[in-house]
Amino acid sequence: MPGLFVTFEGGEGSGKSTQIARLAARLRALGLDPLVTREPGGTPVGEGIRALLLDHERRPTQLTEALLMVAARAQLVATVIRPALDAGRIVLCDRYTDSTLAYQGGGRGLDAAMLAGWNASATGHLVPTVTLLFDVPISVGLERRHAAPGATNRLDREPPDFHERVRERYLELAAADPARWSRLDATVSTDELEARVWEVIGPRLAGVRG
Ligand code: TYD
User: What does each C-alpha distance from 148 to 6, 39, 185 come to in angstroms?
Assistant: First the structure.
């Protein structure tokens, strides 16, 4: 595949969205044209699913929640991510398959192999080239999130032990596949974190067309 597929993962309040914007700006300054997208969402179908998933008033079962996450992903890969990668572009995606493994697998306790199978089917086995894990202690992340007015969604409001399990699962996933994952300490300053991200991504740009 000619493009470069980078995913951003982490718990609540890890600062990953700010870092995506900063990385995209750096790439644009180099004359590149990265595609920036997010999950759940990123397509008209996916944004509709996102509204269902994050609404405080709705109560999907655990299986329904997982299937909707994966459904939004299938649409995003088919209509946005694959075409961009095929055109040689860099794709920066805020959450991807590993969010389902961490939140629905680690957090909710759904079967990991089942979720991995759904991910593979929905994405046609499309795996990121690089996955950045923005790792922060739960207390720091939740404090940051709750300090941002109006920013909490249905999943943010899960109890701390849910978020602990999400973090643990992320750390396990990262440890199991160090060739793809880079764990970044997201408690450092925004500028420092931007520099760490660049250390990982900069060397991967050789050979990328767009
Ligand atoms: P969002 O507001 O985008 O949160 P963040 O800024 O933390 O990325 O909300 C996305 C929420 O959906 C977040 O709590 C993580 C959750 N999520 C899952 O539980 N499973 C998934 O597969 C994905 C993509 C997201």
Answer: 26, 20, 21
* CA 70 to ligand 1: nearest atom: 22
Distance 9 CA to ligand 1 centre (A): 9
- Distance between Cα 162 and ligand 1 center (Å): 13
How many CB atoms are located within 10 Å of the residue 1 CB?
10
Q: How far is it, in rounded angstroms, from Cα 122 to Cα 66? A: 12
Q: Do the beta carbons of residue 19 and residue 143 sit within 8 Å?
A: no
Q: Is pLDDT larger for residue 80 or for residue 210?
A: 80
Query: What is the pTM assigned to this prediction?
Result: 0.96
CB 162 within 8 A of CB 12: no
Buried b (16+ CB within 10 A) or exposed e, 76-92: bbeebbbebbeeebbbb
pLDDT band, residue 209 (cuts 50/70/90): low
Given a cut of 70, is residue 1 above it in pLDDT? no
Which residues in 30-53 are b (16+ Cβ under 10 Å) and which e? Answer: eebebbbbbbbbbbeebeebbeeb
Residue listed under structure tokens 């909710």: 108
CA-CA distance, 120 to 67, in Å (whole number)? Answer: 13
